[in-house]
């Protein structure tokens, strides 16, 4: 499979790239600056997205706003619109998005980000990711999309291959923790790319 990976050098994107390449897939990585052997791409530029996506089987988006609360949903939604339109121009239908956990439900109709104890530092990022999910749900019916939410805590760790796949509900373990290593998250994402079990919906990954 030929995969265009937008945001290839971040914590999650770099591990998705490694996991996909280890399985024999061809990955074209992009970054804003074109560093570390990646292609330079401004993700809000529809024409640039289309040009790079052409000839690929799938596009993975692994970008997020800064975690300092300095940005609202605007930049991420602009990238979302550009990616959707760029895929259409390029004739690529498969899209997998590295999403956030904040939009997962802790109770019917209640999102994690709406909990009064949700960390203020991460709220702007969580709301932006939630808005991106809603954009995709509303406007990407013509594409074969999957949005992959991590657990509440995702960080570098062990590649175990043992985790749970859920849906819109926030998952915790027996001790009430919600965690996943970036390495295991990457396994789940590439599994979905290969197996296409969740086209047109959001899945979540946690221990």
TrEMBL record:
A Pfam family hit: NAD_binding_10
An example Gene Ontology molecular-function term: oxidoreductase activity, acting on the CH-NH group of donors, NAD or NADP as acceptor
Limits of the NAD(P)-binding domain: 7-195
Membrane-traversing stretches: none
Superkingdom in the source lineage: Bacteria
Annotated protein name in UniProt: NAD(P)H-binding protein
């Amino acid at each position: 499979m030929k995969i265009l990976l937008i945001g290839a050098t971040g914590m999650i994107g770099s591990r998705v790239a490694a996991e996909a390449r280890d399985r024999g897939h061809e990955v074209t990585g992009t970054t804003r600056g074109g560093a570390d052997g990646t292609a330079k791409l401004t993700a809000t530029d529809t024409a640039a997205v289309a040009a790079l996506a052409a000839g690929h089987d799938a596009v993975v988006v692994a970008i997020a706003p800064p975690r300092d609360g300095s940005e609202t949903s605007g930049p991420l939604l602009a990238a979302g619109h550009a990616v959707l339109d760029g895929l259409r121009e390029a004739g690529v239908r498969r899209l997998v998005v590295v999403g956030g956990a904040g939009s997962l439900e802790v109770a019917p109709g209640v999102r994690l980000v709406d909990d009064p104890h949700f960390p203020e530092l991460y709220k702007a990022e969580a709301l932006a990711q939630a808005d991106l999910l809603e954009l995709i749900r509303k406007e990407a019916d013509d594409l074969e999309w999957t949005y992959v939410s991590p657990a509440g805590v995702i960080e570098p760790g062990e590649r175990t291959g043992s985790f749970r796949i859920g849906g819109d509900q926030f998952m915790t373990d027996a001790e009430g923790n919600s965690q996943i290593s970036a390495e295991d998250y990457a396994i789940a994402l590439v599994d979905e790319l290969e197996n296409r079990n969740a086209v047109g919906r959001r899945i979540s990954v946690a221990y």
